[in-house]
Amino acid sequence: MPFEIIWSEPAIRSLKKLDRPVSKRIFEAVSRLRDEPHRWVERLVNSPYFRMRVGDFRLILDIQGVQLRVLVIKVGHRKNIYD
Predict the structure, then answer these.
(1) Residues of the chain by 3-state class (helix, strand, coil), percent to 5
(2) How wide is the angle at C-alpha 27 spanned by C-alphas 82 and 61, nearest 5°?
(3) Is residue 82 assigned to a domain?
(4) Which residues pair with 75 in a beta bridge?
(5) How far apart, in whole angstroms, are the C-alpha atoms of residue 19 and residue 38?
(6) C-alpha span between 51 and 70 (Å, rounded)
């Protein structure tokens, strides 16, 4: 059963601000999470969330295994995503 990808409003706004090739690369990387999300992510220390690297950008994710959902919470450059 594939996971459903859900984008939060702040993540969508951040994605729209990026250059088109970068946002396309991020979108394609997130679509890989549908089949096997834990293969592409790492758990954040002292947090229930996960991170995904796409070049210099990071995504903060919430993987809800029971509901088969991946929630993209935040998208940003690696220097300021964890603020």
Answers:
(1) 35, 35, 35
(2) 35
(3) no
(4) 59
(5) 27
(6) 12
Q: What is the CATH number of the domain that holds 61?
A: 3.30.2310.20
- Count of domains forming the chain: 1
On the 0-12 / 13-18 / 19+ scale of CB atoms within 10 A, 5 is: middle
Mind listing the pLDDT tens digit for each residue in 6-52?
999 999 999 999 999 999 999 999 999 999 999 999 999 999 999 99
**Per-residue exposure over 31-60, b if at least 16 CB sit within 10 Å of its own CB, e if not:** eebeeebeebbeeeeeeeebbbebeebbbb
Radius of gyration of the chain (CA): 12
